[in-house]
UniProtKB/TrEMBL annotation:
Ranges where the Peptidase S26 domain occurs: 34-234
Topology in membrane: Single-pass type II membrane protein
Enzyme class: hydrolase
Protein name as catalogued: Signal peptidase I
Amino acid sequence: MVDVDPEQTPSSDEPSSDASDKPSKKKKKGNFWKELPVLILVAFGLAIGIQIFLGRVYMIPSESMETTLHGCTDCYGDRVLVDKVTFRFTEPSPGDVIVFRGPPSWQNDFITEGTGNPISEGLSWLGSLIGLPSANEEDFVKRVIAVGGQTVKCCDEQNRVTVDGKPLDEPYKHFDEGTPAEQESFEELKIPDGMLFVLGDNRNHSCDSRCQGQGGLNGLVPVGNVIGKARVIVLPPSRWGGVSDHNPQVVSMGAPGWQQNVPMGLGIVAAWPLLLLGRRVRDRFRR
């Protein structure tokens, strides 16, 4: 007969290992639901911070930038990601497609009607903070043609815009089908420092520096009003791609091929010493 130690016998009063696991699981589940509101608030705060300081999605509500950016009445306009960081360190240059706040002399070349419902308008405002695009009556998108210190005029004998007397190379320029491929002329204008002369790519369907404020100095855009540079078309998926920033003041065929390849060649040559130095450093750490 084998003696059984009563201290070693399992007691019915003692909880099993499975039973002891259940409270911890409930505790973990309870912690998740407590942390969820905090996670949502953190995510919302990060989204707002990104929108304010880094970049934001904007909707193109008009056809003034066709065909670079798609936007027209009763159609699904492009949504573009606008970089807000670049112009903190540099100023806009010719060819940049920019989003900016319209100066007081500017009037909208598109009209958006509010719903009148405070709830829906409030939701729209919250959505804009986290990147849901909406039409904005005060923000415009155009292409920079000339900057402070330059003189712009249209047109030369071949109906081209000139800057400082030199014709521009504008492959992005668009004219609607069935309309003459001629752009409206405007008088010579010297651009003051800190100002920008901007035009729409859909040259005859854009109210820009030529007509806003009746043109002239009233049609210029202060550099301080620039919000950012349009970088990428994010919606619709069929339109995914980068936004052209071709500099119209630089003639693409102006430099010989060997000169165009100089920067690339210098980059390759400079990369070799860095590569060798990196290998030596890695070998020393391994030793």
